[in-house]
Specification:
Layout: E1 2-7, H1 13-24, E2 27-30, H2 31-37, H3 55-68, E3 72-75, E4 89-94, H4 97-106, H5 111-122, H6 125-132, E5 137-141, H7 148-159
Parallel strand pairs: 1-3, 1-4, 2-3, 4-5
Length: 160
C-alpha cells in the first residue's frame, strides 16, 4: 500500500510517518533527503526563505520509488501533488493554530515563515489541494496527540 503523509510544516507528518511505517512494516521515505540527494531543489530563495522544488521532477522521482516498493510511506508537505493513481491513501495532518504557532516558534522560524505557515493551515490549503487531486484522504488532528495503533488498524481495514 502506498501512503503519502502531507500537511503544513510542524503538524506532525514525520513523526506519524515514521511510526506508521514501523507499525505497518512499510518503507519510510523522507522526501527532503530525496530532494537533496537527487538535486531536485533549486538555489536558496531569500524571498521565500526556502529552496524551491520542481514538482514535476519530484513526482517523477517519487513514482520511480513507488514502482520499486509498493509498501511505502512518503513523508512530505509536497507529496499530495503526486497523481492519485500512484497513491492508495493520503493522510493530511492538521493542528490547532495556537499549537502550530508554538511548534513553529520552537523551530526558530522567522515571523514571516510563521505567518506563511499559519495561513496555509488556516485556509486548509494542503487539504484542499489533496482533494483537488482526488486523493483518498484521512485527516489526522495532531493537536492533542493521536493513537498510531488505531490509525494503523483503520488503514488495515481499508485495505481489505
Amino acid at each position: 500500500m502506498t501512503i503519502i503523509i502531507t500537511g503544513s510544516v510542524a503538524t506532525g507528518k514525520s513523526i506519524i510517518a515514521k511510526k506508521l511505517a514501523k507499525e505497518l512494516k512499510h518503507k519510510y521515505l523522507d522526501v527532503n533527503k530525496l530532494i537533496i540527494k537527487e538535486k531536485i531543489r533549486e538555489k536558496y530563495s531569500k524571498k521565500l526563505e526556502s529552496y524551491p522544488v520542481d514538482i514535476k521532477k519530484l513526482n517523477k522521482s517519487l513514482i520511480k520509488k513507488i514502482k520499486e516498493n509498493k509498501k511505502i510511506i512518503i513523508d512530505s508537505h509536497l507529496s499530495h501533488y503526486l497523481p492519485k493513481k500512484y497513491v492508495d491513501l493520503c493522510i493530511v495532518t492538521i493542528c490547532d493554530i495556537k499549537e502550530l504557532k508554538k511548534r513553529l516558534k520552537k523551530r526558530k522560524y522567522s515571523e514571516k515563515k510563521i505567518k506563511e505557515n499559519l495561513e496555509t493551515e488556516i485556509f486548509n490549503t494542503i487539504l484542499i489541494e489533496a482533494k483537488e487531486n482526488k486523493h483518498n484522504i484521512l485527516v489526522i488532528d495532531t493537536t492533542k496527540g493521536y493513537n498510531i495503533k488505531q490509525i494503523a488498524s483503520y488503514i488495515k481495514k481499508c485495505k481489505t
